[in-house]
């Protein structure tokens, strides 16, 4: 699925037909749903008829033969077959000419010839620079290794090192390509064991599989022979070449060899399509060599990018985490649910089930690997230190939380295991002090996007990995050793935390302080009232950053500023650059040259399925004007938990759907004791959503950027306590940024009073936006607020107190002060053009559709 999206993006063409065999890995609901969404026709070859998919079968055989030749010529062990196939596919994409197009695959995609000056002989002897921080003056400057391929995500070579038993990625490599490539040891009889990792059916593995316990013996013999020869001068240093950032195809994208090259079997992996090209533009070759990152994320779970990189067959536990305490074999590599190493689809390499218990996770190799990766992060960031249990100190327990990470299409892209602390055991004043950490309001996010649309900025997104682990703790906190990772030699010891841990009450604050201090030191300034907004100006250009815990969005008038900011963040934190913003806090964001579209169609689909409303008929409006909800004491009770879940989901949806705000807020008043009439009301909202899935907010560029507000009230609209409902809408040009529908706290005695209170509420939101926009470089005065009540306007503009207004609470009179100062101006608008009317009452279909179009809500398909 990822490959299809990538090729469609590069070639600007849509995939129409995909042909596979009848393997179950190609026939599943997830793929079927993906093909339906993409409009792709799926075809299957007849059983035992591989010739119907001959092109893929032939390409798999070509790759296998190349990999076999490379392994034999280099005399490397069979367990390096994945690296051999990766390298073969990588080089053939840049060297083999396609007969039909008379071009190489790389040239077809990128419209230019590839640079192959950096190619090296697979399996040759090489030396990699020793860049360890702890290297002594007399330690060797280079480490001996074997060249096994090219990096998939950086301008670097992949080298296997004997002393560390890991794979390192580096640009600083010297090669001895003319030396003998391997030991004669590999021409002897294969080592045997009761537990062979490589299946006998694998053409690469041959009939003599190499076990995990024998791998080190083989490599020891290899290096003893390999490096006992006289050293010659290196042919060329790798740094003299410019290696483009072109990731090699993953091993899973190729086919594992069959038993007989001339025969086609029904092996489920034989019919996997070979990845022709999986490259990035070659302009990246002109950039400076990026610094090696401590850890990066692979799209291929069999090759997680960790520097140093352990081979997939050499995953090991640290001394503090012995395998005896883990259920299953912790040394196993990543496997699919069917334990086949030949699955080509990325989702098949990930566990589809989220464990509810620790025992379930430990029994699943995918989740074991996820937990190992989490513990490696702790070790890399030096989060804690194992110490004896202190006397009379609170020891906070830990817990594993398992979550499948999904993309905007709902496809599982990662199994995430997170170790959290049981912060509810912390004692205030002892284990923590201050806990508050600011986060961006959803209105601030929409304001950010409105400004970006107005200025035609491209908004980018990045994510901070292991966020809270970057925050330094000020308090002395101890946590218990996590389940499955207890040190057998010191089982009673505990960890003393140096960094914040997920679950600790002060963790969000510690992270915010670390990030805030870093940005301020880098020349950014905080917003006046929004402490999650950071601004930097330079020679007329502006750089804006909005943070929400570990999610960061940023934009600039100068594209180079965005690149510099990305590089800046990578120097301090481990980041995941996610490209242009398209999915943030549940909002689907589509950026276009002249506008930005915001909606939550995916969330609506999921919600309809969750509450079993996807097969119901649709409605034209979320609420009928004739429907008058009350407490309904004689009504039939319904499941309160389910009702509250629906209300919570609808409230979350109002982040991009102002058309359902009034109906949702009205139904939310009956969560304490919901009845069947209330459930029918929320059911109507869901049915309305089903018919308007693609409806969302449009932020056009050419609509001005003036601040204006609309205020309205429904006098005594609540049947329970006769309180009025305030409605407000605030625009920047034609871009709706803020809206609200709220029952007033006081009982108004007149329509004028209700409208006056609503105007005060609208004014407070206007003042917040005005102050927020000062950080963007805008200063507004005489901001227009439109009301359809002449009486309310008269009260705000005239300092008169009489018997009908003297009882109004003092806090609502602040609007008078701002009218006198000229900050805001009150204007009259007819009820027909009162855009806030939709937030105070249920409307008929014609009136409802008129208002949502005026609010800037349009269907994406329109």
Automatic annotation (TrEMBL):
It holds the Pfam family RVT_2. GO terms for molecular function: nucleic acid binding. CDD domains: RNase_HI_RT_Ty1. Residues 1-113 form the Integrase catalytic domain. One of its GO terms (biological process) is DNA integration. InterPro entries: DNA/RNA_pol_sf, Integrase_cat-core, RNaseH-like_sf, RNaseH_sf, RVT_2, SH3_retrovirus. Gene3D superfamilies: Ribonuclease H-like superfamily/Ribonuclease H. Residues 191-211, 247-303 are annotated as: Disordered. Residues 283-296 have a biased composition (Low complexity). This is Integrase catalytic domain-containing protein.
